[in-house]
Write a structure and sequence with these properties.
The protein is an alpha/beta fold and 351 residues long. It contains 12 helices and 11 strands.
C-alpha cells in the first residue's frame, strides 16, 4: 500500500475508534476515488511531499473538512443528503461529484492543516484548575496556551463542567449562554475549588480568528458528531463576547519571552494535543523556558504547567508540574480522551 493510501486507512481507523463512522467511510471513499482519478486534487494528494498521515500533515482530514464545508454552507445539497443517509455507493458518487465540481475549493482546503480547537478538552483544564486551587488557595494565575489555534480554550474558565443535573459554576462568571461540558467521568471528580484567573494569552503558528474562520473550525468537526458541533457553535458565540488573544509565532520563543516578563502572581502554561506537532527545537525551548522560570518561582508567584498529550497509552496523559519555591512537584492527574468524551481522573504525585 502506498504511503498516501495508508494515511487514509489509518485515519479511517482512528475516526471509527473516536466515534465517527461517517468520517471513516468518507476517508475510505476518498482513497478509492483519488486512486483512480487524474484530476489536480488527486495528483496533489498522490504526490504529497511529506507525511500525509495524522502523525504529521493530516491530509485526509483536510479533505474531510473541505467536504463538510460544502455541506455546512449548503453549496452541495446532494452531498448533504448522502451524509444524512450514508451508504457507500451514494457517498462514492457524491464525493466524486464534489471533487470534480468544486475542485478549486478542494485544492484550497488541502493546503491548510486542520485546526479543530476541540473545546471538550477544556473539561480536563477546568478539573486541573480546581486541583491547583485546592493546592494553592487564594492564588491568582494568568493563562498562557501553546498551540492555541483560534484561542477557544483560552476561554475555558468561562465554560461549565458537570452532569446534566447540576453544573459547577464557571471559574469566571459569564452572562448569557455558556459552553457545557459533560464528559464520562471515571474516578472521583475533584471538588470545585476557587482559582482566581487573570489575563489569558496564547500562541499559534497559524492563529485562526473565531469571527472570520468560524466555518473552517466547524468544518473540521466530524459531521456525524452533533454534540461536538453544538459545543463548537457555543464556543464561537462566547468568543464573540470575549475575543481570545492569540499571537502568531513559535511556541518556544514566545513562551520564553512571556515567562521572562515580570509578573506579580502565578502563571499557568498549558497545551492540549499540540506538543506532538512542535519541532524538536521548539519542544526543547519550551522545556528550558519552564525550568528557568520555575527556578525563580515562589509561593506568591507560582508556575504551573499542564499538558494533555499522547504518550502511547489510551487517550492522552494529563500531567501537572508545579513550581512554587523549593523545587518542582509533579502529578499524573490521569488520562483523557483526545476529544474529551471521557476523563479518567486519578491524581497521583510522581515527583
Amino acid at each position: 500500500m502506498t504511503a498516501w493510501r495508508a494515511a487514509f486507512a489509518l485515519q479511517a481507523e482512528a475516526c471509527r475508534a473516536l466515534g465517527s463512522p461517517l468520517t471513516a467511510r468518507v476517508c475510505e471513499q476518498l482513497a478509492l476515488i483519488l486512486a483512480g482519478d487524474d484530476g489536480a486534487l488527486a495528483r496533489r494528494v498522490r504526490t504529497w511531499p511529506g507525511d500525509a498521515s495524522h502523525r504529521a500533515d493530516s491530509v485526509p482530514l483536510r479533505l474531510c473538512g473541505a467536504l463538510h464545508a460544502l455541506v455546512l454552507t449548503g453549496r452541495d445539497p446532494e452531498l448533504a443528503q448522502a451524509y444524512a443517509e450514508p451508504d457507500d455507493d451514494r457517498l462514492h458518487d457524491r464525493i466524486s461529484q464534489a471533487i470534480h465540481h468544486d475542485e478549486a475549493h478542494m485544492l484550497e482546503w488541502v493546503e491548510h492543516a486542520p485546526q479543530t480547537n476541540e473545546v471538550a478538552r477544556a473539561a480536563a483544564l477546568i478539573a486541573a484548575c480546581w486541583f491547583i486551587g485546592a493546592l494553592l488557595p487564594g492564588r491568582r494565575f494568568d493563562l498562557l496556551e501553546l498551540g492555541a489555534s483560534a484561542g477557544l480554550n483560552l476561554n475555558f474558565p468561562r465554560y461549565r463542567l458537570g452532569d446534566a443535573e447540576e453544573y459547577a459554576p464557571s471559574l469566571l462568571a459569564d452572562e448569557g449562554e455558556s459552553v457545557w461540558l459533560n464528559p464520562q467521568w471515571r474516578g472521583a471528580a475533584p471538588p470545585p475549588a476557587a482559582l482566581a484567573i487573570g489575563a489569558a494569552r496564547g500562541v499559534d503558528l497559524n492563529p485562526l480568528d473565531p469571527a472570520r474562520d468560524g466555518l473552517r473550525l466547524l468544518a473540521y468537526v466530524w459531521a456525524d458528531q452533533r454534540a461536538r458541533l453544538e459545543r463548537m457553535q457555543a464556543a464561537l458565540a462566547l468568543a464573540g463576547r470575549h475575543p481570545p488573544r492569540v499571537d502568531r509565532g513559535d511556541a518556544g520563543a514566545w513562551l520564553a519571552a512571556r515567562l521572562a516578563e515580570p509578573c506579580a502572581h502565578g502563571r499557568l502554561v498549558y497545551h492540549t494535543v499540540a506538543a506532538q506537532y512542535f519541532p524538536v527545537p521548539t519542544r526543547a525551548l519550551v522545556e528550558s523556558a519552564l525550568r528557568a522560570a520555575g527556578d525563580g518561582a515562589s509561593p506568591d508567584r507560582p508556575l504551573a504547567h499542564l499538558s494533555m498529550e499522547a504518550d502511547g497509552g489510551e487517550g492522552a496523559a494529563l500531567v501537572l508540574r508545579l513550581w512554587s519555591g523549593g523545587g518542582m512537584r509533579e502529578w499524573s492527574l490521569g488520562r483523557a480522551d483526545f476529544h474529551g468524551r471521557w476523563i479518567g481522573w486519578q491524581p497521583k504525585e510522581t515527583l
